[in-house]
Amino acid sequence: MNPGSKCRVCRQPAIIDLPRHNANFCAEHFVELCKRQVAKAIDHWHLLTREDRILVAVSGGKDSLAVWDLLAELGYAADGLYVGLGIGDYSDVSAEYARGFARARGLHLVEVNLRGEYGYDIPTAARATRRVPCSACGLSKRHLFDKAALDGGYTALVTGHNLDDEAAVLLGNTLRWEIDYLARQLPLLPARDGFPKKVKPLVRLTERETAAWCVVRGIDYLVDECPMAVGNKHLQYKATLNQMETESPGSKASFYLNFVERMAPMLAGRLADDRGALGSCAECGAPTSGDVCAFCRLVATASAHERVPVELLTKGKR
Amino acid sequence: MQVHLRNPTRVVEVAGRRKVHALLTELGLNRESHLVIRNGTLVPGDGELDADDEIEIRPVISGGAT
Asked: Residue B59: which H helix or E strand, with range?
């Protein structure tokens, strides 16, 4: 062990260096740092109350399992929600990680299966709609997360979006000046007619930190990336931001957190406009600006399409 | 040392001792996007890796854009 690498707090051997904090930490004090960052996010943005009934969207990856674990550490009881997306072996394995985590901690995991309950999977939806897989995946998850939260009587839907996720989305939205998307890019979206409160308690932690949390806490998670996400724009934005972060530690945090503090309030009017009158989907009753919501249109298109194996869409991607 | 990598999964041999940062640089990997793990324990950037160590370099980037 390098004698120069000491925990900033206790001077014991460090296990991680965090350049953005200009410090190294041992396992014990790294855990304390992460808990403090999440508690700070919850308190500062009023993300959760002790009375909330919490549902955590769980993928079997590091972020969602870390946020479930961190909430438990901070005294917030929460159930998990796993959506089976039908992305071949990747989905089978990810489900096992989500179930294993819940089982080991005696937590309740709600499961929804796209193919079983809606007659399609993500590879088939991507081919049927001729759009990138992440588009159909995001649309499906957003709808099913909302539905599960409302059906189950939960008052808060938690996702594992971390600082890197938010900074990358912010970069993409800024490059295109997507003002309406920017206005919504907040750690807290309050509940409104037909939508549960949505919160992102991990926005003060980078994904290197959430991954390290899992290693330190002994959480087994699916390390491999979704085979359908390889090469997408989101990953390109993350790579760009990480190059900047390496040269100038703290860049990602100042980019996103200062956006939330300084820029987002200036866009609040756009968020209010966006919340104009929504009707109800003629098929499922979910809030929508049209007659039939985007999810029900996706179900109709994708479930009528011949099943497409994931290998057909990922061949030669990696 | 034996270094286990992903995307694609492979093992590479690196001769001699290295600091973690030096190893990542040598392999062309961004330090912000990876963790270095030895025997289940994280090793910080200026941690010294021995020639006979078995190392996992774990990417931490997730790609979902939602």
From this structure: strand B54-59
Structural domain span for residue A262: 45-314
pLDDT in tens, B44-60: 999 999 999 999 999 99
For residue B26, the enclosing domain spans 2-59
Q: What is the CATH number of the domain that holds A137?
A: 3.40.50.620
Strand pairing of B10-13 and B18-19? unpaired
Q: Single out the residue of A285, A284, A264, A110 nearest to residue A193, CA to CA.
A: A285
Taking contacts as CB-CB distances below 8 angstroms, the residues of chain A near B37 are 215
Q: What is the domain count for chain B?
A: 1
Q: Does A318 touch chain B (CB under 8 A)?
A: yes
Q: CA angle A274-A275-A281, nearest 5°?
A: 105
Q: Which two tokens stand for residue A280?
A: 């109800």
Query: How does residue B65 score in pLDDT terms, banded at 50, 70 and 90?
Result: very low
A11: in domain: no
The pLDDT of A200-206, averaged and rounded, is 98
Name residues 182-241 of chain A within 8 A of B (Cβ): 206-208, 210-212, 215-216, 223-226, 229-230, 232-235, 238-239
Structural domain total, chain A: 1
